[in-house]
C-alpha cells in the first residue's frame, strides 16, 4: 500500500479553470445552498475570474485561497485557504469546501490541515478560527478532527441565505493541531 497522499493542496493556476468549473458544476446544488459565491448559473468565466482573484489576493498578501486536487487524476475536488486575516492580532480564518462525490473521505480534514500549516508556519498566525453554521454538522466534525476547540455559539455571526444566523466559533492554536 502506498504512503503517497491521495490529495494535493496548492495555489490555483489559470490552467485549473476548467477543472475548477467542473468541480463546482458537479456539486452545484450543495454549493448553492452553502456558499454565497455560488449560483445556479455559475459559468466557466466565473471559475476563471475566481482564479484570477486568488492570484491577486496572494500577490497582495491579503488572503490565501488554495485548490484541493486529486493526486492521481489532477482533478479539482474542492477549495480551502486562509482568509479574514488580522495581522495586528495574528489571527485568520480557515474555510473549505469539497465536491459532492468526494465528501466523507477525509478530503476537508486533509485540506484544512494544510491551510492551518500555511497559517501557522508560513504566515506566522497564532490563532485560526473556523466559523460554522450551527446546522453544518460535517464542517463541525472537520474542525473537531483538527483539534480545534469550540469556544462559543456567536449570535448573528454569519449571513446565510439572506439572513443573519448564529454560528459556532472554533479556535485552533499551533499546539492544538493534530
Q: Can you offer a commentary on this structure?
A:
The structure is a single chain. The protein is α+β, with helices and mostly antiparallel strands. 33% of the residues lie in helices and 33% in strands. It is built from 5 helices and 7 strands; from the N terminus they run βαααβββαβαββ. The protein has helices spanning 17-26, 28-34, 44-59, 107-122, 137-146; strands at residues 7-10, 64-70, 76-86, 91-98, 127-133, 149-160, 163-172. α4 (107-122) links the parallel β4 and β5. α4 crosses α5 (137-146). The longest helix is centred in the first third of the chain and has 16 residues, at 44-59. The two termini are 23 Å apart. 34% of the residues are buried.
Record the SSE blueprint:
Layout: E1 7-10, H1 17-26, H2 28-34, H3 44-59, E2 64-70, E3 76-86, E4 91-98, H4 107-122, E5 127-133, H5 137-146, E6 149-160, E7 163-172
Parallel strand pairs: 4-5
Antiparallel strand pairs: 1-2, 2-3, 3-4, 5-7, 6-7
Amino acid at each position: 500500500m502506498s504512503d503517497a497522499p491521495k490529495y494535493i493542496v496548492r495555489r490555483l493556476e489559470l490552467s485549473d479553470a476548467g477543472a475548477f468549473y467542473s468541480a463546482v458544476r458537479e456539486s452545484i446544488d450543495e454549493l448553492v445552498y452553502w456558499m454565497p459565491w455560488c449560483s445556479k448559473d455559475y459559468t466557466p468565466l466565473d471559475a476563471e475570474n475566481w482564479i484570477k482573484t486568488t492570484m491577486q489576493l496572494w500577490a497582495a498578501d491579503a488572503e490565501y485561497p488554495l485548490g484541493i486536487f486529486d493526486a492521481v487524476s489532477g482533478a479539482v475536488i474542492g477549495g480551502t485557504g486562509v482568509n479574514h486575516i488580522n495581522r495586528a492580532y495574528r489571527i485568520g480564518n480557515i474555510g473549505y469546501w469539497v465536491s459532492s462525490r468526494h465528501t466523507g473521505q477525509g478530503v476537508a480534514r486533509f485540506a484544512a490541515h494544510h491551510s492551518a500549516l500555511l497559517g501557522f508556519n508560513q504566515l506566522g498566525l497564532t490563532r485560526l478560527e473556523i466559523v460554522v453554521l450551527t446546522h453544518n454538522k460535517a464542517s463541525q466534525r472537520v474542525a473537531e478532527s483538527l483539534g480545534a476547540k469550540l469556544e462559543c455559539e456567536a449570535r448573528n455571526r454569519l449571513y446565510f441565505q439572506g439572513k443573519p444566523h448564529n454560528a459556532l466559533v472554533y479556535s485552533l492554536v499551533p499546539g492544538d493541531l493534530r
